[in-house]
Amino acid sequence: MGNETRVLAVRPFVPSKTSMHIRRRSKSCAKPKRRKRCSKVTSCRLCATLMRLAKKPLEHQQYRTPSVKAKDLQRSPCKAHAAIVAKCQAIVGDYDGWTIKLEKAGLQRTVQVGPNDVYGFRLAMLPSSRHSTNPQYCGRRVHAKWIDMDTVRNWRTICDRNHPECRHRSVADHVRSPSEGPALLIDTKLMCICEATSKQVYLALSYVWGGSTQLKLSTTNLSDLMRERSLSKPQYSTKIPRTIRDAIGLVQALGERYLWVDALCIVQDDEVHTRVQLQAMASIYGNATLTIVAAQGCSADHGLHGIPGVSKPRSFHQEFFGTASGRTFVHCPDLWAPHSHWIRRGWTHQESLFSVRKLMFVGNSIEWQCHYAIFREDIKDEDVKIPIAEQRIHGFRQERSQQCLLHPRLPDFEALESVINQYLSRDFTYPMDVLPAFAGLEFVLSKVFDGGFLFGMPEMCFDAALLWAVRRTNYEPRDDGDTASTLTVPSWSWMGWTGIDGFAWYDAFDHIKWALEGYWSSVRTLPLVEWYSGSGLTSKPRVILNHWRKYAGIGSRNLPPGWTAHKHTPIKIKGKYVVENTHRQPKHFYTHESDPKMEFWYPLPLVDPDLASQPNPHDPPSPFISCSTNRAFMTLGERFKPHRSFPSVVNVSVHDNSGTWAGSLHINSMEDIALGPARTNDDPPATPCELAAISTGWAYNDSHEGLMEWSHPDRPREGEKYEWYNVMWIQWHGEVARRKGIGRICKEVWEAQELERIHLVLN
């Protein structure tokens, strides 16, 4: 069926004439028998609508009912739904004019009840008998203290039977090689560490270390821990945190034998071994038959509560609601915990991303999550196959950004940006851990993005990647704190800063066909310099490929292998948008044989995954990049009016030494500039700045762009194009410079300056 909304022909609840007559007589005569009669209501429109929606099948169709005024519900003779009304009242607080609405969204088993679309709660109808097979009665009573292990086994059986994509571990298929995968595993039968083989079926654990003191594998205890029953010896068993002990017991309860846990399966003091295993995270978690996620607690000592015969009991309480028909509904609360330490930790991000099947311990309950299902204890399982991206569940879900991992040939810059934005929301005990924690993701994406990555920056579009901008200013450079790592994270990468809230490569999407339809941007970024990895001061630098626009304007002939050109017919209206500059749209768009549904304005250079070069784990990447370019000295002027959506972002005008308006600059930190809230547009320029040109760009003057200076009265508007140089505000520390901001300087103003040629080395 389609995705259109179907509105049920359900009238808002209005007291019937009979009930109104009963109340009037009750008020005048005050007869007890009349009051008793009105309390025995067997039919209620709210309860009946709830029942009707609950009986709708699991489908794409969406069902909604008109809102009902709370006062009408409170005057209703039906007392069965009083608890539902009271729960809605608790949501809105003291507000009197609220209403209640019911909705059954597409692919939802439950009915959403609440005062609006955002705040509400989900109800599932309980069966009259626990043996009922009617799918309408999808609610389930759950034991408050103990998990039903048969339920977990059934989830796995359903997935094995109905989801071959999950069983075949599709996420990691294109990144496997003989050298990847876990080196060591925990043998839960012999209770020791063992060498891993490619044929072993194992589970993986994703958890937070926290501040707990725990047993860690090292070069000194490795040989001892590989002896049978060594993990059962008091000298070691007492140092194993509760979460790991419970995970070992869970593996045994599920009838499996092997478990991978980072603390006990990576030799922590072997730098080379650790780097190799961190790069193999995609294979380790992607090829685990199941990942156990300990999403509760702030440390490894919390445990996995509720496993019979293994761990401490849990405390899971259910809330039940009656209806006029006598049917009972159970509240199915959102298990998502936005303040969970697990969901905030940087190390767990890629663990969740790579895991094909997850058993989540969250909200004192458990939840199964795979590519085609989300199973909960309080909702009956169904043998259905629903892509998880289509399930409107406010719980832990497979990240939208995982799509970039599922295309072994086509790089997806939008998805990469989404991955990084999720990553930026995570915390690290040591800020410098950002690099090793991202290593597994870089390793995977290097098989898709030609040239690989350098500190989280794709080399194939390096000039555009350097233009990253954020939605909040006053982010700070990372320092190494107490970490033993000697590797610095550079200022030119998003990895080099903390406190970043949202991030975008605004200029890296012009190859995607939708970029010229709907809200169209004409902004283009073009290479200016040749970038090198390495300073050239102490070692020979390596050329950074930076060739993402190699096939731009190629036409329909001499296409790279696998690409097909299609004639493009411009459209003037896309949905609710009027498409601008249709006469400037390309004559062709392109598709690749690996995914014909994805359309591009020009072919992209692709990498053969079998031939992809990988970083040598013995050689950490250089934090230095270098080029030959021009620099100019200018000054900062007035601050642009903050955007209402991003009030903390600081963008300022730039003036040359004669006072001429030159362009705009996005500032890393307010501490770097002598600007205050009292400054106005009439104030003279203030802070001096050294700017280095790193690329060029342009946009059509008759388009509507989101550039910070687009509406500035001094921006040049003559001619077809507004042209500029992309510049980086730099500050030197000896022979090496660091980023302080990024911006644009008008082409004619920049070329009128006394430019100086320099060898720029950035860290």
TrEMBL record:
Pfam families recorded: HET
InterPro entries the record matches: HET
Domain annotation Heterokaryon incompatibility: ranges: 202-351
Domain of life (superkingdom): Eukaryota
Protein name: Heterokaryon incompatibility protein-domain-containing protein
Species of the source: Podospora aff. communis PSN243
